[in-house]
Amino acid sequence: MTITQNPKVKSFETRLFINGKFVDASDGGKFDLISPTTNEKFAEVSEATEEDANAAVAAAKAAFPAWSALSPSERGVYFKKLAALIIESHDELAEIEALSMGRPVSGYFESYMAANSLNHYAESGHQALGTSSLNTPGFLNMTLRQPYGVVGAIIPWNVPVLFLINKSAPALMAGNTVVVKSSEKAPLTSAKVATLVEKAGFPPGVFNIISGHGHISGNVLSHHMDIRVISFTGSGRTGRLIQQASAKSNLKNVILELGGKSPAIIFPDANLERAVKETAYSIQWNSGQVCMANSRIYVHESIAPRFIELFQKGFANIRSGDPLLPSTNHGPQADGIQYKQVQAYIEEGKKTGKMVLGSEPSEHESGFFVQPTIFLETPEDSKIMKEEIFGPVVNINTFKDEDEVVAKANDTEYGLYAAVYTKDVSRALRMAKKLDSGSVGVNCTSPAGASDMPFGGYKASGVGREGWTVSMDNYLEVKTVLIRVDEE
Ligand code: NAD
């Protein structure tokens, strides 16, 4: 079957948003967007040049003094307007993402989460407080929390609006100005948000959003001497380049949210139906293109046959097809590159493990669809157990005891999210302590999360944490002020 897409959205914003204005790239350059569902070109987007990235940073630098002088409540007014506009644009954002990277509109939630974040930060600015101390005789000392200046944000394509807002909102509320670079695979929702930033009336230069490839404009941002903090979500490979760029330029602070190879561990006393349903969803949602997806499942050998049988049945409910249709819950991979990468891992997996398909083969002639795929009995040291596949491919292996499974689960360079299913509270807490992971789910797995809990990675899954209670700290310097107090 060949899919023909029929979107309600007929035109998109595709330009750069710099200094409060939409502009074409300085050299007129554009790159093509290909629908991952039909494999047909459907848009041309401005490719920011080095000059454009520099212009965005210069605009942000010029806007900083006035923006940082506003009170948090004054900044919050813009945030609330933007939150309302994002909610109003929910359907359009969902459609644009479905067209760009194939995410089904049926599960689109980012607009609500992004608006929640904006509304949260709109009210949180006054929490940026310093400390005071009388502990040094003859002194009253204090700390001030101050914005850095220009913050850079480089975001991936898998959940773009959420990353855009979760990085920009705390940075802006702390008084910084921002330049965001969207991903070349899914730039249109960021450009749409830029139109809403304009409507919300943010002063020119405060909130700049550019599109383009990483090695061009992203590289300029990571090396820029006027950017003092850069927040990045994406692959470990690019994260390392951004750390190097920081070291080579101005030692800017770097926050990195990187990849994962998350384990889910199922003990014999687990609620089996729940464990199956949630672990299957974790690796299938967004076609497995989720940093924290549980791509390795360790199930106790005594319940493994039943678990695997139910798991396959769970995958059988998947309805792959046009992500614009409300009935679809499994879209294609984001583009041809992702598709080829996942297929290469599947071929690799066939050499070492036992492959079981989780659903009927998709019969779409066009598009980059990958069937949810299960591998059993894969050796722990094989490539598909060690590397991030970023597709709907899961390894299910068995274990006999707690120590063995902890050793296996931790035997990876990643450490983003781990899950444990058991009714034994002490065992759950022992596991939570022992697993090398930034988040541990007990009787739940990713994407379960909490906005007021820090999110980030152990080991090579990241540097730093993000979340409502910690993100503003990422964007505030600490200054110590020592004040001598004369006694008379
Ligand atoms: P990617 O690293 O290829 O690209 C991410 C961003 O970096 C894009 O905007 C890209 O243009 C830019 N970029 C690429 N090269 C650059 C360079 N040399 N300098 C500056 N910027 C550059 O990653 P991706 O394919 O977009 O995203 C998938 C990866 O992101 C996966 O590894 C996934 O696990 C990870 N991810 C992590 C989290 C998290 O919160 N930990 C969330 C989502 C995705």
UniProtKB/TrEMBL annotation:
Q: Name the SUPFAM superfamilies for this protein.
A: ALDH-like
**So what family is this one in?**
Belongs to the aldehyde dehydrogenase family.
Catalytic activity line of the entry: an aldehyde + NAD(+) + H2O = a carboxylate + NADH + 2 H(+)
User: What GO molecular function terms would the record report?
Assistant: aldehyde dehydrogenase (NAD+) activity
Q: Where is the active site?
A: E257
What is the protein name stated in its UniProt record?
aldehyde dehydrogenase (NAD(+))
Give the first-level EC class, as a single word: oxidoreductase
Q: What is its EC number?
A: 1.2.1.3
The organism's taxonomy opens as:
Eukaryota, Fungi, Dikarya, Ascomycota, Pezizomycotina
Sorted keywords for this record are: Oxidoreductase
InterPro entries the UniProt entry points to: Ald_DH/histidinol_DH (IPR016161), Ald_DH_C (IPR016163), Ald_DH_CS_GLU (IPR029510), Ald_DH_N (IPR016162), Aldehyde_DH_dom (IPR015590)
- Limits of the Aldehyde dehydrogenase domain: 23-481
Source organism of this protein record: Penicillium subrubescens
What PANTHER family does the database record attribute to this sequence?
Answer: ALDEHYDE DEHYDROGENASE-RELATED (PTHR11699)
